[in-house]
UniProtKB/TrEMBL annotation:
Keywords: Cell membrane, Membrane, Transmembrane, Transmembrane helix, Transport. The keyword Transport applies. The keyword Nucleus does not apply. The chain crosses the membrane at residues 20-40, 60-85, 97-119, 139-159, 171-192, 198-223, 244-271, 291-310, 322-347, 367-388, 400-420, 426-446. This is Putative efflux protein, MATE family. It is a multi-pass membrane protein. It is found in: Cell inner membrane. InterPro entries: MATE_fam, MdtK-like, Membrane_Transporter-Flippase. GO terms for cellular component: plasma membrane.
């Protein structure tokens, strides 16, 4: 008999506003930690190992971003399925999802790691990595590929816990992972004390150790606390793939992962347009992008929290709460993103001076860019919250289509076709226009679309709530 599980966290009861806020803040903290970790690692490499090493890590990290994006959507599909099952009180179904997902991520990560390690030189050469940076990039990337299984499984566990209603534990173990990575970087790069001097490979080694240690510590903690989703000796049959779940993971996960591809490819086009205006404008745009990364973080965190919370309530057939979760999520996004937007407008010059010389031409251009673009992140935040609610039922294609329309049918064409008439301002104004389009389309689909009738699985989890039988119809929300 498995040990008695600890009490399950519930997102289907209690005050929505307080629960959503306390659930969102650890996700926001984890996002900030990840960005901070990447920035600090780049500082070590760029300042102490030179431009070739920085170029090597930039090329390798671009590939890593794509590899992590490959499984982001599948991790999100797992989160939603776990959330719906937990909300319905069907823990057997939740464990089936976890078991099938574990097998999938182990197999996928092993294949990608082995192929990536073997063909790292060819992959980087195909990316046209500069010759002086190629040997450094190969050494760095091969260790990153060794770390990939730990990265995939660690990310999967964190997303699973969020689906089960726990965002605090992932944040605490993210602290461990980031703390180790930051602390070990200089030790392995420079060979301090008993540590070998590995140069740029030392940065990747620090990531490998940090991710693996955090993964093992998280697993030990979950089993020590007898988490209700842990699989024990008598439950190993859950690891046998459930092909209905596996099919849903892929078919529902790929559209969510494709959103990252849509964003990345449109960003490449935008930077190519910006580059045409010279290095000062490109530097200004790069500095503004650094600030925008942090401005959008609350929206991303609230959108993720809303998705997990709505999924549990969809599973419990608590449709009255789903509508209120959406409304409160919109309010929080407006408040938090609006606060950061206001701070940037108040301290525009000082914030940009963190990345640019105070008296140069670039900082003047960057201030102009911010004046046009930053407020549009209010639209982005509201749209992302609506996406989170829409996805919670399994309606994953509409957000992808809406995002593609906003970026590839509005933002990119506007910037491309009109930059000859309005110069760089056409590029800057394409951001508010694209974000507004995304919000309006998301709002229309949320109000009148068929997302409430969507399903993650052909046979949804069995609800344990007597007051809300499985066959209960999803009401149309006003």
């Amino acid at each position: 008999m498995p040990p008695t599980a600890t009490r399950r966290p519930s997102l289907t009861e209690g005050p929505i506003a307080r629960t959503l806020l306390t659930f969102s803040l650890p996700i926001l903290g984890a996002n900030v930690l990840q960005s901070l970790n990447g920035s600090i690692n780049m500082v070590w490499i760029g300042h102490f190992l030179g431009e070739s090493a920085l170029t090597a890590s930039a090329n390798a990290n671009l590939l890593l971003f794509l590899l992590l994006g490959l499984v982001f959507g599948i991790s999100m599909a797992n989160t939603l399925m776990v959330g719906q099952a937990v909300g319905a009180g069907d823990i057997d179904q939740a464990k089936r999802v976890v078991g099938t997902s574990v097998g999938f991520f182990v197999a996928l990560s092993a294949i990608v790691a082995a192929l990536g390690y073997a063909f790292a030189p060819e992959i980087l050469a195909a990316m046209r990595t500069p010759p002086d940076a190629l040997p450094l990039a190969v050494a760095y990337l091969r260790i990153i590929f060794l770390a990939l299984p730990s990265m995939y499984l660690y990310n999967f566990l964190m997303m699973t816990l969020r689906g089960a209603g726990d965002s605090h534990t992932p944040f605490l173990f993210m602290l461990i992972s980031v703390g180790l990575d930051i602390g070990l970087n200089p030790l392995f790069i420079f060979g301090i004390g008993p540590f070998p001097k590995l140069g740029i490979a030392g940065s990747a080694t620090a990531t490998l150790i940090a991710q693996t240690t955090a993964l093992l510590a998280l697993l030990a903690w979950l089993y020590r606390r007898k988490h209700f989703l842990c699989l024990h000796r008598g439950e190993l049959h859950y690891l046998k793939p459930d092909f209905a779940i596996l099919r849903a993971l892929v078919l529902k996960g790929l559209p969510m992962g494709m959103q990252m591809v849509v964003i990345s490819t449109s960003a490449l086009v935008m930077i190519s347009l910006v580059n045409a205006y010279g290095s000062q404008t490109t530097a200004a745009y790069g500095a503004a992008l650094q600030l925008w990364t942090y401005v959008q973080m609350p929206a991303l965190a609230i959108g993720s929290a809303v998705s997990s919370m709505a999924a549990q309530n969809v599973g419990a057939q608590r449709w009255d709460r789903v509508g209120r979760i959406a409304a409160i999520g919109l309010g929080y996004s407006l408040l938090l993103v609006g606060t950061l937007v206001a701070i940037i407008y108040l301290f525009n010059h000082g914030a940009l001076a963190l990345f640019l010389p105070r008296d140069g031409e670039a900082i003047t251009i960057a201030q102009h860019i911010n004046a046009i673009v930053v407020w549009s992140y209010l639209f982005f935040g509201l749209g992302f919250v609506l996406f989170g609610v829409i996805r919670s039922t399994g309606a994953v294609m509409p957000p992808l289509v809406i995002l593609a329309i906003a970026l590839w049918c509005v933002r990119v064409p506007f910037a491309w076709l009109l930059h000859g008439h309005f110069g760089a301002n056409a590029v800057w104004w394409s951001f508010p226009l694209g974000s507004l389009t995304m919000l309006l389309l998301a709002a229309v689909y949320y109000r009148w679309g068929g997302w409430r009738k969507a399903r993650l699985l052909a046979h949804p989890p069995r609800t344990g709530m007597a007051s809300a039988p499985v066959g209960a119809a999803a009401p149309s929300e006003s």
